[in-house]
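> example.struct
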């Protein structure tokens, strides 16, 4: 999966990494910033996504499509496609450019709008990467976990760098007997929930 990343995917990853790094230094507003995961988180979620059972492969919070590029590697290996949701038009336009430039338009479905109106439609979810606003995480957790297939994964970003905001959810997930959970200290901290 990582040994032969197609050149158009690699090139777009590098371009987005440079754009995201610039964003973080030049005072770009929170709304406009790409707020991407770091490369090590991308690798980790791709590794996890590669091994889940059959079912829908979802991402909530596309931004410019950087994490989706990593997940597309796992989807390609599995012969699956990724469905990724983005609320903001400007970000969704960037993501559409990403998927075109990376030549993965056929492997990724970009859904524009609030994912809260769509995620409940997927009855058999094999994998979901959650990377939206932290205030919505509990709502998404409640939409995704009931529909995860056995052995399916929900992975949520920012479990360490936004631990305070997410503490209630982290505690609830820990106590939730439908899943086994662990916070993995990769990148900003990833909450990994595996459905029993
Ligand atoms: C942290 S960024 C995602 C970064 C992306 N996962 C990456 O690593 O390349 C969060 C994104 O989630 C989007 N978002 C927030 N709430 C959303 C919702 N309810 N439905 C869909 N997208 C949402 C935001 O517009 C923003 O682009």
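> example.seq
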């Amino acid at each position: 999966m990582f040994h032969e990343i197609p050149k158009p995917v690699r090139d777009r990853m590098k371009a987005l990494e440079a754009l995201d790094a610039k964003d973080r230094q030049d005072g770009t507003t929170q709304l406009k910033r790409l707020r991407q995961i770091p490369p090590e988180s991308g690798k980790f979620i791709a590794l996890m996504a590669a091994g889940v059972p059959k079912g829908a492969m979802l991402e909530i919070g596309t931004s410019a499509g950087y994490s989706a590029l990593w997940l597309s590697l796992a989807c390609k290996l599995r012969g699956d496609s990724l469905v990724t949701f983005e609320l903001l038009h400007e970000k969704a336009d960037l993501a559409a450019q990403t998927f075109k430039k990376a030549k993965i338009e056929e492997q990724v479905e970009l859904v524009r709008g609030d994912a809260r109106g769509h995620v409940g439609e997927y009855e058999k979810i094999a994998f979901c990467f959650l990377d939206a606003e932290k205030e919505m995480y509990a709502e998404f957790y409640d939409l995704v976990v009931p529909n995860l297939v056995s052995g399916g994964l929900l992975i949520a970003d920012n479990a360490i760098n936004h631990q305070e905001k997410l503490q209630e959810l982290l505690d609830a997930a820990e106590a939730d007997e439908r899943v086994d959970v662990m916070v993995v200290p990769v990148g900003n901290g990833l909450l990994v929930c595996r459905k029993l």
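> remarks
The pocket of S-adenosylmethionine is lined by residues 35-37, 60-61, 63, 66-67, 85-88, 91, 114-116, 131-133, 136 (CB under 6 Å).
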